[in-house]
Records
---
Amino acid sequence: MFSLDALFCHVDDFCKTFEAQWHRKLLDHGGIKRVRAKSLCLSEIMTIIIAFHQNHYRNFKNFYLNQVKQQWSSAFPGLPSYQRFIEWIPSTLIPLCVYLRGCLKSDEG
């Protein structure tokens, strides 16, 4: 059984600790550039991406437009257009990999 609330809480707990460390490391190494504000936080974006892989949709566009925009709009009040969301996905690559690696380690141990 899929629970959007449980997934979001798990991802959000991870993001709270990860983001602070990640931004500190980026600042130390001079790797942070101008960061534009987004209408969704990192944990919301990651939750949507992970939820796509846990659902029956074959492509992300249908999932975003039919499931996220129509069914979950109350859970994610700041939803951007599909195109804007797609532009944000690359910024989640590192946090998403770290999160999923942590999930795999906890399943093994």
---
Amino acid sequence: MSEDILINITPQETRVALIVQGAVQELHVERTLSRGMAGNIYLGKVVRVLPGMQSAFIDIGLERAAFLHVADIWEARPHEHGNGNGNGNGAQTPIEKLLYDGQSIMVQVIKDPIGTKGARLSTQISIAGRMLVYLPQDSHIGISQRIEKESEREALRARVQKLLPADEKGGFIIRTMAEDASEADLQMDIDYLRKTWATISQQMRSKPAPTLLYQDLSLAQRVLRDFVNDDTSTIQVDSRENYQKLQQFGALYTPSVLAKLVHYTGERPLFDLYGVEEEIERALGRRVDLKSGGYLIIDQTEAMTTIDVNTGSYVNGRNFDDTIFKTNLEAAHAIARQLRLRNLGGIIILDFIDMDSSEHRNAVLAELNKALARDRTKVSVSGFSALGLVEMTRKRTRESLAHILCEVCPACHGKGQVKTARTVCYEILRELLREAKQFNPREFRILASQVVIDMFLEEESQHLAMLGDFIGKPISLQVENLYHQEQYDIILM
């Protein structure tokens, strides 16, 4: 299927949309002030070693110390080329024997800070290229698991091994994109990665900790490196300056994609032209309407995301079971698309409409797996549980779209609901009674939102008057337009 990639760049942020057959399939946002740190390499300083947790906090120059677990410490050993901290017999060296407070250490961010959690680190360094990933501390050549045929894996390994210089001590992981790469492309990748590592090594010797040694590519550059494939028709960029920068980057690093790079010069904003702005608005809502008349309800919480499927107004099937089955099939595709659009990760619970037929359940599950196959992020799907729910996980690599673009509502504090005006009125009446027992002012004045004051003037006027008579003090009302519905103050005059 033909794909178009749209890149909207402003000084404050870069936004990328992947369009397939006129529909937005993926959205990526990178803000200048909060650019992701995954992949960055730092010279850090050990702040504190925690033997009980077998972890350490590392200062890498950020507001919060980053976290390093013993399992993420690379410990090179003779005749062993594994991943992580090991000694060949399954045992791990305790972290207190590997690190000490004040020690300088090279680390790489493997997970961005999320919420109150600091960045997660690893001491195994990897530098991603277009075709290859460079592992300067390891000497083996690995192959992407997506390349399944053993003959192809061995052929690729031999091709890369042949291109490596005699003095190469590092290793490589061959990415899926290397399957159809020419030897010139592979050689260009190897040269780029070796040069990058040489620069990092030189900086590490000359700079004090904590300091940034290497920053991963910008979102626009990663598009050229990772997103473009044979199905990509055009990469449209709406900024002349950044179009020229991407041309320069592409000429050095991804020359094969230069022919697809286009500078968009239309008067209408690029995202407006393709309806991306409207799609972003819809991706921030709870409800997603299906073409058949059914709909999804998506609720994102701290622990997990739940997606509920409903038939809505769809009744076009031959019978009710047929209606349910067709709605669930359509929902499977919509769910896969929404996971990519919203970048939802972690545990995800899908509540399809109950189906009595095991054949229908298997068909819906197969359709869901088929729709998820195009996802760039690792996804694992379980079958239907005893309660009729589908449990799945999607690797959490960065903040979701809602977390990037939105914040917790100051009125409801994330509950998704606020107290009614009548409930707030009754709270105020109780508070007035408490205040009257402790203080003896000349008058009480209630400051509240317009809707609460209106309730006191109309439906609750009798209760307010009764309380005034009971405490023997006048009560006045004042509208505060900046107050939200639950907010109020009682002033002693």
---
Amino acid sequence: MTLLEQYFDCMRRGDHIALADLFDKDGILHDSSWTLVGDDALHLSGKMAVEMMFHHKFGMNGGPFPISGVKFMEENVAWYFIIYRGRVVPAVAYLSSVTEDGKIDRLNILPM
């Protein structure tokens, strides 16, 4: 499985520990798709921040986020739909850099 496929798998399962393990210790997750439901963009710096935030998000969400319609445009780009607070949000995930040891260095999630 590619890193992006693993990311979606962890999101679908609600596994915050496995999700964080995909990231480098200094990896960045920037998700501005939240702005479509009135929230601020989510900017996390570091594996620990990813683990803590998604532990909280999965808990507050009651489990994993429903994700559907994932279409891989290439190995590092995918379009998909995710549900935040009952609203369907179209988004694109762009894996912009990976470390030498195969961890996520930067993942950008943008609204479509």
